[in-house]
Design goal:
By secondary structure, the chain is α/β, with parallel strands linked by helices. The chain is built from eight helices and five strands. The chain has a five-stranded parallel β-sheet with strand order 3-2-1-4-5, with helices on both faces. The termini are far apart.
């Protein structure tokens, strides 16, 4: 019997870890720190939005002189603070599905908007690092989500055509990225 897929590529924040809520809290606080206001809807639009799209979106919202990198660095510090205080909670069933996939010979991969250093640190902290055959991060590709780059690169690194992979995502930007790359897509909305 032929398997439907040879690999499953997971997003990280909001899909395997219940950390998307930290970004939803940290973005508005970071903007407020610099004298801007962010509505909840705008924070939701940012889920998995990579470069060059995120900096462009902020300039659209707040003007051409908006210093995205400065605000983003401050936001990263707020997220790290939340993680120190509350940890990195796993989504229900995350470890179990990863275990099942490994036991059944299906490759596993991460495709995240985080950089490699942070991704590795988070995965080691929650005991999931060894569950992945490949870890693909946004800084490894030219364009972030919703461009297809990260999923196309993940498939290349796995040595598989995209139609032999499932992508598991929680956000419209991530779903669009995986779909544009040709992966089969499963969306699990993050309601936290």
């Amino acid at each position: 019997m032929d398997k439907k897929a040879d690999a499953v590529i997971f997003d990280l924040d909001g899909t395997l870890t219940d950390t998307e809520k930290y970004y939803q809290t940290a973005w508005p606080k970071a903007l407020e720190h610099f004298g801007y206001k962010m509505e909840k809807e705008k924070a939701l639009e940012l889920r998995s939005l990579g470069r060059p799209f995120a900096p462009a979106k902020f300039k659209e919202w707040y003007g051409e002189d908006f210093d995205y990198m400065k605000v983003r660095e401050y936001r990263k510090g707020l997220v790290e603070e939340l993680i120190r205080e509350s940890g990195i909670p796993l989504k229900p069933g995350a470890k179990e599905i990863l275990t099942w996939l490994r036991e059944n010979g299906i490759l596993t991969c991460i495709a995240t908007a985080n950089d490699y250093e942070r991704t590795e640190r988070y995965l080691k902290k929650i005991g999931l690092f060894e569950y992945f055959d490949k870890i693909i991060c946004a800084n490894m590709v030219e364009k972030g989500k919703p461009a297809p780059d990260i999923y196309s690169y993940a498939c290349k690194e796995l040595g598989l055509p995209p139609d032999r992979t499932f992508a598991v995502e929680d956000s419209p930007n991530g779903v669009t990225s995986a779909y544009r790359a040709g992966c089969k897509v499963i969306m699990i909305p993050d309601h936290s």
